[in-house]
Amino acid sequence: MTATADNPFRPALFSFIRDLAGNNNRDWFQANKDRYEEHMKEPALRFISDFGPHLRRVSPHFNAIPKATGGSLFRIYRDTRFGKDKTPYKTHLGIQFRHKQAKDVHAPGFYLHIEPKQCMIGVGIWHPDGPSLKSIRETIDGDRRSWKRARDNKRFRQSFEIGGESLKRPPRGYDEDHPLIDDLKRKDFIAFTNLTQKEVLAPEFPKAFAKQCEAAAPFVRWLCGAVDVPF
Prior knowledge:
The chain is α+β, with helices and mostly antiparallel strands. Helices cover about 45% and strands about 15% of the residues. It starts with 10 loop residues before the first helix and ends in a 5-residue tail after the last helix. The model has no long low-confidence stretch (mean pLDDT about 95).
């Protein structure tokens, strides 16, 4: 199977990631860097570039930047400074279409994760900073109806499942018997929908990805309002 006019991803992408997972060292990567460029980096940059017009129809306030550094494509190099895992490379492809006012990954966005047997689309805010998290909780508590409309939007919930980390106890200032306590305990405000490898490689995948971003728009729009950025 070769890349189509609409979808730059090919089976060779998954083959490269599987091989990298079994040979996660610098010597192997340098010897196979051409494969990385051809089957992972360049198709990802093309996907980002091609997705820009679709993204603007979802919202004009998110970026599709086809750059390997400082753009929508996550670096393949792992930060090994603080963890026990010292393998140097990520064994997945990550793309985030981040809000234009964002400084880092902890901001509203749309995310694509490609990995053998673990492909998915993510939306929302992962690990928001303290002030943003406080603002989200206050907005949930202050306008419960609008939060439930966004959270329970039918089209959104047909595809996406809300997940992420949560506190074990209520955050300060909220009682255990609050009707939305499970939402107030959240440390992440993200949602996911899983994909198969077949779906990622399908000719219509970019359009399908755009439709999923559109389905998630009510949830992301609410979060943008809660942290005071435009949607």
